[in-house]
Design brief:
8-stranded mixed β-sheet; FAD/NAD-bd_sf; alpha/beta; NAD(P)/FAD-dependent oxidoreductase; FAD-bind_Monooxygenase_sf; FAD/NAD(P)-binding domain
Length: about 500
C-alpha cells in the first residue's frame, strides 16, 4: 500500500468503513471473486460501533440471532441479547474467516473523495486510491455528539463520551455524573451503580422503557442450534416476524400503540414504587417517538439511595460542580456523556465531492437518496445505512443486507455495460423522497410530540428511518433497477 506517495492504487470498489455494513459487503465481494476491492477503515481494527463502544454493560437491544448476517449465522450466541464484546468478536471472526484481511486497509482515514469524471479519487491518511465505485459504509453511530455545555472543558476531572470510554479513569468510589437517559445510558447507569460512591443521572427527557427479558442460552440450546441449522433459522424467522409486528404501533394504529404504551406504563409502575420518582420518569410524548429503551434494571437502579435522578439537563460546569437547568448543584469527580451521535448530519458528507460539489451541501436540507442508497450528482457512489435505511422496530442488519444486494446488482449492471457511470436522475431521487415523506407523515416519529435523532433538525423531515416494515424495504429496494439511472436493463427491455 502506498504511504505518502502520489502514486495511486487502482481498484474496482472502495468501501469506506469496516463495521457491519463494510464487513458484510466485503464478504459478499470476496465470495464473488470478481471485483478488486479494498475496505478503508480509519481505526486499527474492524467492528465499527461494536469496536468503539466498550462501556460497562454494553449489549445489543436486538436479539442476537437476528443481529447477525443471514449468510453467516452464529449458532452459539451466549445470550438472547449479546454483549457488545461478543458482537465485536463475531465481526472480527467474519472478516478473518471470510478472507478479508488482504482487502482491509486499517488505520486508513478517508480524508477526501472526489469524482474526477471517470473514477473516484480517494485521498487517505495512508495514500491515494482510485476506484470505479465508491461505497460509503461509515454508519450513523460513529461520530459522538458532544453537547455545548458551558465550562465543560474546564471540568476538574475526567470527561468522556460513552463511545470513547476511558478505561483508565478511576470511577470506583467516586461521584460520577451520567448525562443522558437513552439506550447507552440505560446500560451504563446500572453497571456503574454500586461501583461509584454516588451516581447523578441528568435526564433532559425521560425515555419510554419496556421489559428486556434477557437470559443466557443453555449449553443444550447452543448445541442444538449448532447441530440443527434449520432450528436456528426458524428462531431467526420467529424473532423477525415478532419485530415486524411492532411497526403498527409506530404507525399509531390502534390498539397496537395502546398495548405498547400500557406495557411500558405497567413496567414503570411495577418497578418504581415511589410516586414522586415515577412521575419524573413518565414521558410526556407518545411512545416510539424517541427510541424505546429495553431494560429490566434501569428503573430499579434509579430508585437506589446512592443514585440521584436529576430531572433536567446539565446546563453548565464550574470546576468540579455540575449545575443542572433546574438550578441544582451536584459535586462530581467524573462525567460520562451518553449524549448520542451525529445521525442526520453525517460528518463524512463534508469529505465527499461529486460533480457539483460536496455531499454535505447536497444534503443541506436533509439527507436524501434514491432507494436510500444513491444520490444524484454522485456517480457510481452508494451509501449503506444512510438516508431512510434504518429501522425503529427491527434489525439494522436485515436492512444492510438488502442494500448490499442492491449494490451487487449495480455492480453486475456496470460489468455488463459499456463503461457509462451510474448516476441516479434527480427526478427519481425526488420521487423516492416524496414517497418516503408520504409514508412517514402520520407515524409516531413525526406526530408523537417529541424531538428525536430520527428527524432532521433543519427540515423537520424523517431522514433516518424507513417508515415501513423491513420486508417492504426489501421489496422496494432489494433489487437493482437501472431505469431510475436513465438506463435500460442490460439486454434491452
Amino acid at each position: 500500500m502506498n504511504t505518502g506517495s502520489t502514486v495511486s492504487t487502482e481498484v474496482d470498489v472502495a468501501v469506506v468503513g469496516a463495521g457491519f455494513a463494510g464487513i458484510g459487503l466485503g464478504i459478499r465481494l470476496a465470495r464473488r471473486r470478481r471485483e478488486s476491492f479494498v475496505v478503508l477503515e480509519r481505526a486499527p481494527g474492524v467492528g465499527g460501533t461494536w469496536r468503539d463502544n466498550r462501556y460497562p454493560g454494553v449489549a445489543c437491544d436486538v436479539p442476537s440471532h437476528l443481529y447477525s448476517f443471514s449468510f453467516r449465522p452464529k449458532p452459539d450466541w451466549s445470550r438472547v441479547f449479546a454483549p457488545g464484546a461478543e458482537i465485536h468478536e463475531y465481526l472480527r471472526e467474519c472478516a478473518r474467516d471470510e478472507g478479508l484481511d488482504p482487502h482491509l486497509r486499517l488505520g486508513t482515514d478517508m480524508q477526501r473523495a472526489r469524482w474526477d469524471g471517470t473514477r473516484w479519487r480517494i485521498a487517505t491518511s495512508a495514500g491515494i486510491y482510485r476506484a470505479r465505485v465508491l461505497v460509503v459504509a461509515a454508519g450513523r453511530l460513529s461520530e459522538p455528539r458532544i453537547p455545548e455545555i458551558a465550562g465543560l472543558s474546564t471540568f476538574d476531572g475526567p470527561v468522556f463520551h460513552s463511545a470513547r470510554w476511558d478505561g483508565a479513569a478511576a470511577l470506583a468510589g467516586r461521584r460520577v455524573g451520567v448525562v443522558g437517559t437513552g439506550a447507552s445510558a440505560a446500560q451504563i447507569v446500572p453497571a456503574l451503580a454500586g461501583t461509584a460512591s454516588h451516581l447523578v443521572v441528568f435526564q433532559r427527557t425521560p425515555p419510554w422503557v419496556v421489559p428486556r427479558g434477557d437470559r443466557a442460552y443453555s449449553p443444550d440450546e447452543r448445541r442444538a442450534f449448532a447441530l440443527d441449522p434449520a432450528a436456528e433459522r426458524a428462531l431467526r424467522e420467529e424473532l423477525f416476524d415478532e419485530a415486524e409486528r411492532a411497526i403498527d404501533a409506530r404507525r399509531r394504529v390502534r390498539p397496537d400503540i395502546d398495548r405498547l404504551r400500557d406495557r411500558a406504563l405497567a413496567h414503570l409502575t411495577a418497578q418504581v414504587p415511589d410516586a414522586r420518582l415515577r412521575a419524573r420518569l413518565r414521558p410526556d410524548y407518545e411512545i416510539g417517538c424517541k427510541r424505546i429503551v429495553i431494560s429490566d434494571d434501569l428503573y430499579p437502579t434509579l430508585g437506589r439511595d446512592d443514585v440521584t435522578l436529576e430531572p433536567s439537563a446539565l446546563q453548565r460546569v464550574e470546576k468540579s460542580t455540575a449545575i443542572a437547568a433546574s438550578g441544582a448543584h451536584h459535586p462530581l469527580d467524573a462525567l460520562v456523556l451518553a449524549t448520542g451521535f451525529w445521525t442526520t448530519r453525517l460528518p463524512f458528507a463534508q469529505r465527499i465531492e461529486g460533480r457539483h460539489g460536496l455531499l454535505a451541501d447536497r444534503w443541506a436540507d436533509g439527507m436524501t437518496a434514491h432507494a436510500s442508497t444513491a444520490v444524484h450528482g454522485f456517480p457510481n457512489m452508494f451509501v449503506l445505512n444512510g438516508p431512510n435505511a434504518s429501522l425503529g422496530h427491527n434489525s439494522a442488519v436485515y436492512m444492510i443486507e438488502t442494500q448490499i444486494d442492491h449494490v451487487l446488482g449495480a455492480l453486475d449492471h456496470l460489468a455488463a455495460g459499456d463503461g457509462t457511470p451510474l448516476e441516479v436522475t434527480v427526478a427519481a431521487e425526488e420521487a423516492y423522497t416524496r414517497e418516503i415523506d408520504a409514508m412517514g407523515a402520520d407515524t409516531v416519529w413525526l406526530q408523537g410530540g417529541c424531538r428525536s435523532w430520527y428527524v432532521d433538525e433543519a427540515s423537520g423531515r424523517l431522514t433516518l428511518l424507513w417508515p415501513g416494515t423491513a420486508r417492504s424495504f426489501r421489496a422496494r429496494n432489494g433489487e437493482f433497477d437501472p431505469r431510475p439511472y436513465g438506463q435500460p436493463p442490460v439486454g434491452g427491455g
